[in-house]
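# nightly structure sweep
# worker-07 picked up a monomer target from the shared queue
# config: single-sequence mode, recycle default, output format = structure tokens
# input follows
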Amino acid sequence: MNLNNIHNIYFIGIGGIGMSALARYFRANNKHVAGYDKTQTEITNVLVDLGIGVHFEDAIDNIDPKFLKAKDTLVVYTPAIPSNHLELQYFVNNGFQVLKRSQILGLITENTFCLAVAGTHGKTTTTSILGHLMYECRVELTAFLGGITENYNSNLILRGTDVSVVEADEFDRSFLTLSPNLACVTSMDADHLDVYGDSSQLIKSFEDFSKKIKPNGKLFVKNGLPLEGITYGIEDNSDYSAQNIKIESGSYVFDVKTPTQVYENLKFNLPGRHNLSNALIALTMALEYGCSIEQLAKGLKSYKGVKRRFTYQIKTDDLVFIDDYAHHPEEINAVYQAIREMYPNKKVLAIFQPHLFSRTRDFIDDFAKSLSQFDEVLLLDIYPARELPIEGVTSNWLLGKINNRNKQLTSKEKVVSKIHESGAGIILTIGAGDIGEEVKKIKQSLSVES
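# output follows
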């Protein structure tokens, strides 16, 4: 398919973080763009401000007539959309070209020099760092991000079309549509078992992804993962490694050892060893592309982070409020490590909203163990996303497994009052559901108090 011949792009699920990045991209390339989503959010409001038509009721009558001409319109949908969706059924049954988001990403990137970031954790932050570094190095690139980067207040970084930087998403095996020149794998912990069935199938999909790399391309692999590739790691014997790590004024200062030389005293401002690992592989891929270390060092120092990835909402001597997207036990462990490294002696209250009934069921004991580390835990109900309830899988079941006397279930309506009762010096909201919508309310309440 030649995307140059398509004038109208219609998105079903346009408010999704990956979908909205594509919508922004096509709008920036002078296409007519519109779409449906079930919920009005800050993201959909931004799309409307860009001149993109968005509606929130699944009805054919709501679609602008110019998008109902099959020969002129490409329809893009996310796998989270149910098969009985009326608009999706209409387009499928009336001769439209209907493609998944991942297929469109594959089409956009196939004629570019593509850098792809894969892994069950760390994709969004790593892709965001890599996009920022290459933008700062004046590379003609487009970066599609799975989060809103603080440096650009966007999930799209756009300077040109020669190079593409993308997240290679393992959900629904989406990353198998890509053919990158340079790729990395940050992690391969079991996840999305509703798609894969068991961890062996997930591992096989990463092996399949590694075979998608173009001839003369390179694969970088976090040291210890069961994949062949150029290794990277923290304070180890990897091909690329971060060494001599120090914390100065809340930032990391470190050296990078490559196969041929050592770069000294690089600075990175995000807390947590997991973020340092993300910065290391982003720097590595940019170096392999050909960026200069001097420009990369400046870019690394100026990187601000991704919204909802260890985002400081309040940061004073007496009170810290952090919001994070963590929704897997290993991600929660990484957040805990970062907090304890920065604030070793403060009481930490974690407010967690589990995401998906199947994920909660599959990792119930690991979730309990990771949450038990915090001084106090508030649990919200499970956010269902694309799923129907599973009998017996509830937040109350998870609560019973958490080894912590300071734990309780609560509702979003009561979260603010529970926080005030706690008196904790560190407040942490975590989860991939709609808990992020509560952050503004919590911040406002704590700001009034502080």
